[in-house]
Amino acid sequence: MSDASSSYYFLDEARAGKAGLPSFVHEGTATGDVRAARADFPALHQRVNGHPLAWFDNGATTQKPRVVLEAMTRFYERDNSNVHRGAHTLAARATDAYEDARATVARLLGASSPQEIVFVRGTTEGVNLLANTLGRSRVGAGDEIVLTTLEHHANIVPWQLLAQSVGARLRPVPVDDSGQVQLDAYAALLTERTKIVALSHVSNALGTVLPVDSMIAMAKARGISVVVDGAQAVAHLPVDVTALGADFYVFSGHKIFGPTGIGAVYGRRDLLAELPPWQGGGSMIRDVTFEHTTFSGPPARFEAGTPSIGDAVGLGAALRYVLALGLPAIAAREDRLARLLTDVLSDIPRVRLIGTAAHKVAVASFVVEGMRTDDIGRVLDEHGIAVRSGHHCAQPALRRFGVESSVRASLAFYNTEDEIHRLGAVLRRMMRTDDVKHWGATVKKGDLSSSA
Ligand code: PLP
What we know:
By secondary structure, the chain is of the alpha/beta class. The chain is built from 16 helices and 17 strands.
């Protein structure tokens, strides 16, 4: 394995005059002016249905800055090879690029070593990996796994499959009317039967930021392992797994401006070392006979087969970009956008916001009295505004608020005030119609063309 701290890729980009940095850094504009970075995202600068695209579906996936697309193209044009195999130049370059990406993930998360980072396909695969390794070694009949009402299905179903197969059960922590977890109820659920706590850092359906630091501390005080689903956190908040004391932290690259097909599991070094392998195959073994196999140490033990090398390279470029922009600056910008979004939506009749916790990221989940959520999504799309309508893979969270589906506008730093006002204008125009049922059945493309 090559030196994981190698900066081969970074230096190479610097030579090319790019260095994977946001465009405003080159242009010499003020650091922290994250608005200028919008120019770096080609997909944002297009018209959809005759209107400028307003991408409010960042919770589902984010758009990619040009440096990510370029890093991946460059990798495939020059360096493409399998990793950790073969004694030739391209294998060494590909391995360096792959390990450099691992080191960048470690830097983003504040891990103490790149060896604490396992590459996976995304959050879903990461949670499945942990359910099948940590879960299978810790959870038995009669045991309990505590999670929250806010979890994405990816942080419910793998634990449920495990629980069903070993005779354990899931205990969800309730949330209050604002969509925040109830810490006293959480404390009461932690008992000697609790073997794992699995919680999201940020709720994808409501945008609630959970008090993960307190929740981790409370679990750790009882010796319980904690898995944090950071899918909706990493692109919006500075994360430091060491300061949080998280045992495991999982995220998807595509939700932080990287490609699909790549994500990571952080695991504290000593804990990863204790876990058994999950998937078997090449690259995760030391020695194989027909009688017996000995396994590599982490992270290789958990990366059977050829990994998504090109996607890891893209993720590394995305994370360098985010780190250069600065997560505190991103969070400050999004906080301003979140306040405007809440103000605009709160002012529209018949709109009910779901999830009003004091600590939220820039996500607004809402329903409109008398209108179907998919119709709202469709009408907004006709105006170039991309939101998500549905259950957001978080059915228990929405059902807590008495709905099966909501409209979700989930923002990133590159969204603008103007886009939020456009969203408000189209919704207001929809409200002005005398017959709200009209929207449920007969609205047609072009009906609202004079709005926004
Ligand atoms: N967890 C949360 C909180 C999410 O929002 C998502 C995706 O929306 C996931 C897990 C699953 O992520 P992926 O589909 O990238 O595996």
